[in-house]
Amino acid sequence: MTRIPSLAAALLAAVTIPLLLSACVAGASSTPNEHATSSPATTAASESEPTPEPAAPVEVDPSLYLEEYVPGVVFGVGSGAVNCQLQEPSGDPAVVAWGCAVFLDQEWQWEDTAFAEYCAQLEELEELGCRNGLVVHGEEAPAPRRNTDADFGGVQASHVLAAGERITVGDVSCEPVGDGVRCEDVSSGHGFTLSVAAIDAW
Question: Is this structure's pTM higher than 0.85?
Answer without folding.
Answer: no
